[in-house]
Design a protein that fits this description.
Aldehyde Dehydrogenase, Chain A, domain 2; 500 residues; six-stranded mixed beta sheet; 22 strands; Aldehyde Dehydrogenase, Chain A, domain 1; alpha/beta; binds nicotinamide-adenine-dinucleotide
Length: 500
């Protein structure tokens, strides 16, 4: 989700800036095409100001039952999974179009409580998500089953069917995009969804669901239930009427979900989890490109993205020059409220998370790390942390081992390719990695040796064509989002054999 050009952003922002205390917010859960109000239980904050915004309800198992029932009724009455697939494609395209038309409202509802700058959401996240929904819609009437070789006396084929109701749970760091990753392929494949957004960022997801109904997607196919992990999340993942779980969030919550599913009844799951991704810069790299990508791999959204390239691993011959450039670049970041300055850096999602980031940075310094820049919060209201670069770190330093989920990167040096690979290997995570080198043979060799679900060479970040699946190795995940794999992951296959 790149930032938009400054001039373009400024023009957009003139019409997007808003007062967070006066923004009308959707109220309640969204079930069966309607808002369902319940007594408020949880506070939503604006991290840009640190102020409380509003309260939201927390769904218990009865309310999750209601949402699952609404999804089942909608599937049956609309024939969503049974009718001509082109009908699904048309409805999903209409939803994507309406999301783009409503980009300003979606962006404000996202920016008010999250770390996403309003102009970036309006000009970036909404359009990218709409394109993803169209991308998945195209699979609805093009992805086929298989006729398999058998004797002439038999007919064997592999059919694909939707699961029925899918339970989706999303994190706070890119609420619209993460909801799109789940809803696009699930609906295109013929399912209904019960989705729980993060309790910190519920509003844009609610509005996406409302827009879906306005665009002609049958009411009840997308149900949004608000709540926390232990109560609402557990009620979803353990629900017998939910046939598959699709989760994006921390490795800790992913483990808890696996446990709950093992306890309450086996069902398939897709888990997109945490990361601690390395960026390897070899001596023959284009230094301008590497410096730009290394910064881009940790500064946007204040480093609060799963694929953050938080471990910079650089050949010793270019290390000093690169570290100096990065420290200068980091120091240029200025904090700004998400509803305010288009060029500003994002707040940290909560004060608790900021304290956690600072705790790891101070522990890293206590264990011998050298501070190249940053190292403390910005002196202003709201939760903002200075982009921080730490050198001289051992492999055991907490800044190297922990997923910090903030604007903090470590800087390590190597002499040989072997040493670079040893430093790159993380004991827990394997989400993605970056390689910068002018030698394509080396890049391919190193990419094959890295333990990661995605490797980028001479770039850092996903492309916008959505065809490459994304997902982690090791404790970074199970299964894939995006690409054809995500569509297939929302259907189950049935092998049919007929004696003729
Ligand atoms: P989190 O795990 O705290 O919460 C994510 C979601 O899970 C929230 O909706 C939360 O309420 C819910 N949840 C928490 N505990 C649960 C439980 N026991 N059962 C069911 N649901 C539960 O994560 P977060 O702080 O919102 O997001 C940051 C994390 O997400 C980071 O670790 C980041 O790497 C990861 N992430 C991964 C990807 C990816 O594609 N791999 C993408 C974005 C974020």
């Amino acid at each position: 989700m790149g930032r938009v050009a400054a001039t373009e952003t400024n023009a957009i922002l003139m019409t997007l800036a808003f007062d967070p205390t006066r923004l009308p917010l959707p109220n309640g859960h969204f079930i069966g095409g309607q808002y369902v109000e319940r007594p408020p239980e949880m506070l939503v904050h604006a991290p840009s100001s640190g102020q409380p915004l509003a309260e939201i309800p927390c769904a218990d198992s009865d309310l999750v039952d209601q949402a699952v029932d609404a999804a089942k009724v909608a599937l049956k009455s609309s024939g969503w999974g049974d009718a001509a697939p082109r009908d699904r494609l048309r409805a999903l395209h209409a939803w994507a179009d309406l999301m783009e038309a409503e980009a300003a409202t979606l962006a404000r509802l996202e920016a008010v409580c999250s770390s996403r700058p309003v102009a970036d959401v309006a000009a970036g996240d909404v359009g990218v998500t709409a394109t993803q929904i169209r991308f998945f819609a195209e699979f609805a009437d093009k992805e086929c089953g298989d006729l398999v070789p058998t004797s002439k006396a038999q007919l064997g084929f592999i059919d694909h069917e939707p699961y029925g109701v899918i339970g989706a749970i999303t994190p706070w760091n890119f609420p619209i995009s993460m909801a799109g990753w789940k809803l696009g392929p699930a609906l295109a494949a013929g399912n209904a969804v019960v989705l729980k957004p993060s309790e910190m960022t519920p509003y844009s997801t609610l509005y996406m669901a409302e827009l879906a109904v306005r665009a002609g997607i049958p009411a009840g196919l997308i149900n949004v239930v608000l709540g926390d992990g232990p109560r609402t999340g557990n009620a979803i993942t353990g629900h017998p009427g939910i046939s598959k779980v699709s989760f994006t969030g921390s490795t800790r919550a992913g483990s808890a979900i696996m446990e709950n599913i093992a306890r309450t009844g086996i069902k398939p799951m897709t888990l997109e989890l945490g990361g601690k991704s390395p960026q390897l810069v070899f001596a023959d790299a284009d230094l301008d490109l590497a410096a730009e990508c290394l910064a881009k791999g940790i500064l946007p959204n204040a480093g609060q993205f799963c694929v953050a390239g938080s471990r910079m691993i650089v050949h010793h011959s270019i290390a000093e020059a690169l570290a100096e450039r990065l420290a200068q670049r980091f120091a240029q970041e200025t904090p700004a409220a998400t509803w305010d300055d288009p060029g500003g850096s994002s707040p940290i999602i909560s004060e608790a998370q900021l304290q956690r980031i600072d705790g790891i940075v101070q522990a890293a310094l206590g264990q011998g790390a050298e501070l190249l820049c940053g190292g403390s919060r910005f002196d202003r209201p709201g939760s903002y942390y200075q982009p921080t670069l730490l050198a001289g770190v051992s492999a055991e330093n907490p800044a190297v081992t922990e997923e910090i989920f903030g604007p903090v990167a470590t800087f390590q040096t190597f002499d040989s390719e072997e040493e670079a690979l040893r430093l790159a290997s993380h004991p827990t995570y394997g989400l993605c990695a970056g390689i910068f080198s002018g030698d394509l043979t080396r890049a391919v060799r190193v990419s094959r040796a890295l333990e990661a679900g995605t490797v980028w060479v001479n770039r850092y970040g996903r492309s916008q064509d959505h065809i490459l699946p994304t997902g982690g190795w090791k404790a970074s995940g199970l299964g894939k989002d995006l690409g054809r794999e995500a569509f297939l992951a929302n259907r189950r296959s049935k092998s049919v054999l007929i004696d003729l």
